[in-house]
Each structure stands twice: as structure tokens, then as C-alpha cells.
């Protein structure tokens, strides 16, 4: 991945955070907002905020800032929140069940229609109102229901084989929570969520903050 594409990816990942923040401001009665205000509240620079928002909106005006209604609508349109994305989830364990029960996915245009598993104790039941089917029905149902998005929450040992089955069943995009680096055919979109990597970043930032606190405390004695 090039530096430019990495930067664009980071900007894209910030857009939902901007959207959530802007909706809070809107609920508080604000009708417009400046990049300086956004930057201050979100601990970014105003230049970065303007660059990020320019990906999705041309609503910003010098001195007057962004009209909130327009900016929110532009962000929702750019992120595809008005385009419903049906998905199947494979792996109805603890993480899978948590995702099945997450009601806010609907706000983002994501609808998990069903889950799939191999555990006979889970198959045939419902989780958060979603049916859990045996894995052997995946390809047929994905094809019949034209589902193109798959969410993978299975153990590492079976992640690749399940991924292969998903792509063979017509899945075009996979949201991968398994923690495994998956091999996918050309043209398949893969989004990895690595909790270990996220925690490593968090831990590193916390360690730096604590070292800074210790240094500042030492200088004050």
C-alpha cells in the first residue's frame, strides 16, 4: 500500500467519526460548524479536517464554515448509509452474537440477515431475531438471496477454509474479524479488523502518555 493510499484510507476511516460528532452537534441545536471547532473537539488539525471532509462534501465556506444539514447528508451519501447492504455472518460465537445484536448497524445501512455455524447447539436457533443456519446452506442461500457481503467471526484455525467457502458462494466483500491474514481471489474486497493490532496501538499510546506524565512530574519536583 502506497503512502497516498494509506493516507486516504485513514481519512476514510475518520469520516464515520465526523458523522457521529456532527449529529451530536445537530441535536444540541447547532446549524453550522467550522473546521477549527471540529478539529479542537476531535484533537485533529483544521487542515486535516478540511482535507478529510473534502472527500465527501463541498459544503464548506470560508468564514461561515459548514452547514450541518448539508454536511451530514453529504457524509451519509458518500459512506453509502442510504444504500442497504445485506450480509451473512459466519461464526455465531460470542463475538458473532454481539455483532448480530448490534442495532446501530441499521443506521449505517447494514442488515445482517442470518448467521451460519457448525455447532449443533446453535444451528436452528435465533440470535437477536436472526436465524442460524448450518454452514452447508451458505452457498445456496447467498446465491438465492443475492447476498454479497460476508462477516467472518470464526476461530483462526478454520478462517481460511470458511473464507474460501464464502467467496465460492458469491460473496464479494468480507469483513474479517478472525485475526488471520486471509488469501482471497482477485476482485474480492477484504476488510480486516485486528483487535490485537488495535490494542497494540492503544497500549503504545498509553505507555507514551504515562512516560510523558512521569517526565513532567519529575521536572516539577
Itemize the secondary structure elements and their pairings.
Blueprint: H1 3-27, E1 32-33, H2 35-42, H3 46-54, E2 66-67, H4 68-79, E3 85-90, H5 94-100, E4 110-117, E5 126-127, E6 130-134, H6 138-145, E7 149-152, H7 156-168, E8 173-176, E9 189-192, H8 195-219
Helix pairs in contact: 1-4, 2-3
What features would you describe in this structure?
Keywords: Cytoplasm, DNA-binding, NAD, Repressor, Transcription, Transcription regulation. Modulates transcription in response to changes in cellular NADH/NAD(+) redox state. Residues 17-56 bind DNA. InterPro entries: CoA-bd (IPR003781), NAD(P)-bd_dom_sf (IPR036291), Rex_DNA-bd_C_dom (IPR009718), Tscrpt_rep_Rex (IPR022876), WH-like_DNA-bd_sf (IPR036388), WH_DNA-bd_sf (IPR036390). Belongs to the transcriptional regulatory Rex family. This protein has 221 residues and is of the alpha/beta class. It folds into two domains: 3-79, Orthogonal Bundle (Arc Repressor Mutant, subunit A), CATH 1.10.10; 85-196, 3-Layer(aba) Sandwich (Rossmann fold). Helices cover 48% and strands 17% of the residues. The protein contains eight helices and nine strands. The protein has helices spanning 3-27, 35-42, 46-54, 68-79, 94-100, 138-145, 156-168, 195-219, and strands spanning 32-33, 66-67, 85-90, 110-117, 126-127, 130-134, 149-152, 173-176, 189-192. The strands form two sheets. The protein has a seven-stranded mixed sheet. Helix 1 crosses helix 4 (68-79) and helix 2 crosses helix 3 (46-54). The model has no long low-confidence stretch (mean pLDDT 89).
Amino acid at each position: 500500500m502506497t503512502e497516498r493510499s494509506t493516507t486516504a484510507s485513514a481519512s476514510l476511516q475518520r469520516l464515520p467519526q465526523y458523522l457521529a460528532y456532527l449529529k451530536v452537534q445537530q441535536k444540541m441545536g447547532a446549524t453550522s460548524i467550522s473546521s477549527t471547532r471540529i478539529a479542537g473537539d476531535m484533537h485533529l488539525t483544521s487542515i486535516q479536517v478540511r482535507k478529510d471532509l473534502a472527500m465527501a462534501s463541498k459544503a464548506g465556506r470560508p468564514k461561515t464554515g459548514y452547514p450541518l444539514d448539508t454536511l451530514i447528508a453529504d457524509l451519509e451519501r458518500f459512506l453509502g448509509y442510504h444504500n442497504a447492504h445485506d450480509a451473512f455472518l459466519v461464526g455465531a460465537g460470542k463475538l458473532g452474537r454481539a455483532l448480530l445484536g448490534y442495532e446501530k448497524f441499521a443506521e449505517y445501512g447494514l442488515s445482517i440477515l442470518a448467521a451460519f455455524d457448525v455447532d449443533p447447539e446453535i444451528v436452528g436457533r435465533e440470535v437477536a431475531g436472526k436465524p442460524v443456519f448450518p454452514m452447508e446452506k451458505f452457498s445456496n442461500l447467498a446465491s438465492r438471496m443475492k447476498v454479497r457481503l460476508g462477516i467472518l467471526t470464526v476461530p483462526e484455525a478454520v478462517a481460511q477454509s470458511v473464507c474460501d467457502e464464502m467467496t465460492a458462494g458469491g460473496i464479494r466483500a468480507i469483513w474479517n474479524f478472525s485475526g488471520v491474514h486471509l488469501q482471497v481471489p482477485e476482485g474480492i474486497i477484504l476488510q480486516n479488523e485486528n483487535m490485537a493490532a488495535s490494542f497494540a496501538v492503544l497500549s503504545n499510546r498509553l505507555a507514551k502518555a504515562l512516560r510523558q506524565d512521569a517526565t513532567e512530574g519529575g521536572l516539577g519536583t
